[in-house]
Amino acid sequence: MCGIVGYIGPRQASPILLDNLKKLEYRGYDSAGIAVLGNGSIEVRKTEGRLAKLEAQLNGEAPAGCVGIGHTRWATHGRPSDVNAHPHSDCKGQLAVVHNGIIENYLVLREWLEARGHVFKSETDTEVLPHLIEEYYDGDLAGAVRQALSRARGSFAIAVISRRDPDKVVAARKDSPLIIGLGKGENFLASDIPAVMAATREIFVMEDGEVAVLTSDSVTVQDLEGRAVQKEVVHVKWDPVMAEKGGYDHFMLKEIHEQPRAIRDTLTGRIDRDAKAVTLHEVPTTAADLANIDKVFIVACGTAYHAGLVGKRLIERLMRVPVEVDVASEFRYRDPMVSPRTLTIVVSQSGETADTLAALREAKKRGSRVVAITNVVGSSVAREADDVLYTWAGPEIAVASTKAYITQLVALALVAVGLGRRRGTIDLEEEQEIVRQMEKLPMYAEEILLGQDSVVRDLAQELHRAEQMFFIGRGLDYAVSMEGSLKLKEISYINAQSYPAGELKHGTLALVVKGVPVIALATQGDVYEKMLSNIKEVKARDATVVALALDGDDEIRKSVDHVIYIPRTSPYLAPVLAVIPLQLFAYYAAVARGCDVDKPRNLAKSVTVE
Ligand code: AGP
Questions:
Q1: How far, in Å, is the centroid of ligand 1 from the Cα of 349?
Q2: By alpha-carbon position, which residue is closest to atom 7 of ligand 1?
């Protein structure tokens, strides 16, 4: 997730671009850059690192000109570096482009362009765009942009300037946000509303497949075929702080609602949509390597550890190899049974958690191949692992991890299916069915966010005064219940505990008395009857029971006080959906209790000390 901005008007562009980028740094801060068109040429200034570093480098000598674009990057393809920073240019420096999104077929396009003599400088997917536009340019910049985008697959919000078309900025979007700020004698574009609010509250909200042409005194919008599109002017009522959170009260809620896009981006480029197969180029482990693997270790902390618990069950079932999951702070002090025949998977949103990094080094020291699943390109964990599978969740600002967790589950499912296929432990038919379900996850997640939000909010209103709460489940539901209890604990301070449902009668049931809330997850068909019995056990003690069940399950309604439903999907993928209502429940309970949702007491976003 990156931030793009653009400006065209009577004023010097550089200070406007820099100020507007500042309001988008929450979208990414690995590198920053601007391109300004003045005196018939384009000057590009960009650097690895935060916007402040770029400003220091400009040191008051920013490029002169009244047309420009800018970018603050959250690295996806290509580590954070000066050369990978945006804007990117064509061969002759006549064009500059900034991009937010992922061009899924960039390798094929790059090969085609290099064969036609184009010279690339960066490792990014984005750089194919200026070269494609250069290839198609015949005097009509918007037309060249439309043709270039018709070749690109994936997601994009882009802005383009050209020294051969000095009086316009062209912008377009598909699956990445883009708004146009309508000024008086000047116009703006940005990934998000906060960037333009200082100058205007009148905007166009761009839709997928739309292309905008901005001049100082006009904005015209067309579709990818060049047909005119009439846009409605929207007046923004938010205050600036609200705007940075996209209109949500907290970053956590915004990030919960970003999950459909995060899932979609994490799947991008890793499944063959025609063959319904997992590709997983980033983990080149061969069938011969896998035949030699006799054990998998998954090591992580906190929420990432909970993702590992889900990963264990997926990998054991689909790769048929024993999996041990350990919290990183324990792993390296227990002389772990790791050998060159062990495959170690470390999971870390930040990629900087000290315990997880230390565990990675311990596993490597013992000869294990290490795969990292992380959300930060170029993080310490990413640099030191043998293979890296990035979760394209975008920056996660709230301390409580949500979209990172859900994309970790998607990444672990891709590993289980992809490596299971290579190991020969699942057949093509099973792989295709799971991939079909994977492709529906963004839609199902959207359905839950739209359909269950008010149900969950009302439940949180009813139950938020509880001082203790239990989350129970069996199998994969138990793993998810652990994440649900951590979410509630860490932001509402309610003493929430998670237990295997079959374990309650061995002691914990003594704590279940009248009115104690119990959240019971019942999405796993193979243990459903047993789960129903456990629910009846707690109901018999007058607990207040909330079931989380699959659409169409009317049976469970007879035994509980409330039911939250999620769409039916593969049992392996149900955790991806089951966690969303639990995240919302924790959020609304914390808000009802007046807690600081985004910055809970005693916690930090990334624990870089042991
Ligand atoms: C998650 O809600 C917590 N904030 C915390 O448990 C976090 O998951 C843990 O610190 C691990 O962080 P990492 O994924 O960046 O390594």
A1: 7
A2: 302
Residue of the CA atom closest to atom 16 of ligand 1: 348
Chain segment 507-553, per-residue pLDDT in tens = 989 999 999 999 999 999 999 999 999 999 999 999 999 999 999 99
Sheet holding 495-500: strands in order across? 495-500, 468-473, 517-522, 544-550, 562-566
What letter does residue 87 receive in the DSSP assignment? P
Q: What is the pLDDT of residue 165?
A: 96
Top mutation candidate among 255, 301, 403 for ligand 1, by most atoms within 8 Å of CB: 301
CA distance 504 to 537: 9
Sign of CA dihedral 229, 230, 236, 240: positive
CA angle 499, 563, 582 (to 5 degrees): 50
Classify residue 19 as exposed, middle or buried by CB count within 10 Å of its CB (0-12, 13-18, 19+): middle
240's CB contacts (< 8 A; 6+ apart) are 23, 194, 197
Query: Going by C-beta distance under 8 Å and a sequence separation of 6 or more, which residues neighbour residue 6?
Result: 17, 68, 69, 70, 98, 159, 161, 169, 171, 188, 189, 190, 214
Mean pLDDT of the chain: 94
Identify the CA nearest to 344 among candidates 302, 315, 303.
315
CB of 104 closer than 8 Å to CB of 65: no
Query: Ligand 1 — pocket residues by CB below 6 A?
Result: 301-304, 348-350, 353, 356, 399-401, 490, 606-607
Indicate which residues carry an active-site annotation.
2, 605
Ligand 1 atom showing the smallest separation from residue 606 Cα = 15
CB 459 within 8 A of CB 562: yes
Per-residue model confidence (pLDDT) at position 603: 75
What pTM value is reported for the model? Answer: 0.79
What pLDDT shows up at residue 242? Answer: 67
pLDDT at 230 over 90: yes
Task: Write out pLDDT tens, residues 370-382.
Answer: 999 999 877 889 9
Tell me which DSSP letter residue 504 carries: G
